Amino acid sequence: MAARRNPIREWRDGFARGMHSIDFAPVPEVPFHASVVPILHGVRTTLSAGFTFRDDELVKDGGGDSFSLVLSRSNNLEVAQRAQAVRLARGDATLLHVGETGHVGANEDFEFIVQMIPYTEAAARGVCLDGSVTQRLPAQTEALQLLWSSIRSLEKRKLPVSQDACAAMHRHIVDLAAIAFSSQMRLGESELSAVASARLATAVEHIAAHFHEPGFSAATVAQRQGISPRYLQRLLESSGATFTARVTELRLRRAYALLTEAPSGGGRIIDVALQAGFPDISQFNRLFRARFGDTPSAVRAQAAEQHRR
Fold it and tell me: Quick check: pTM over 0.85?
């Protein structure tokens, strides 16, 4: 007779203990399910009722000086370490030290995101995170809201991301975490400047991920970022490019790539324009020629000739 399948043991042995040095204690008589999705330098984990944990055995070899930034996607998530426990509502966050015992979980299905924050990277920003372990960071904290926006943008990305882009996104998340946990008290001038920089980075990231969508506008970005369109425009202008200029350049680059990477099978020119985010073919032709010195058809023909050689 075949051995009875044990999904908890399979998940524990095949993923949890070996890859992430964690274990799982389920709530008795609750059907087990688990889902883990990588997100940059972390994961989004969904589990049935129970608790993920690190015990003395799992941390005996040391976990370095890194911190786990725990972002709750549940309404009653318990996070415990150093004989302290904190309850997180959806959108709240806290920190755990990866080299110490602790647990995360709930008595019902739960979901959370973890991002790794190396001690050295936080220290380089002049922030000591050790005192923030198991301290609740409320969802309404401005820097945390920006961090959530960045995470959502990462989750929605469908295009491959280069190593340089991944490194930049990770630095951005570390910056936001450092700002969030160091700004529980009143923000000073330097922190306010850092929040503005973080807002700009988040807006630019969002534009880069969604510029090709129909109806994409400054008002859409501002609404998703929780700021006014006027403030968004000022942020973008401070970086040297208006919203319209930035979106137009991104759309033109995408159109050029579509025309030159698959010159013989890229569809009609109007289809390329629409894929790049241009709803008006005449405007697309005019802007494309001004930017690249030739028409879309001519650029495609030249690319096709080069491919045939």
Answer: no
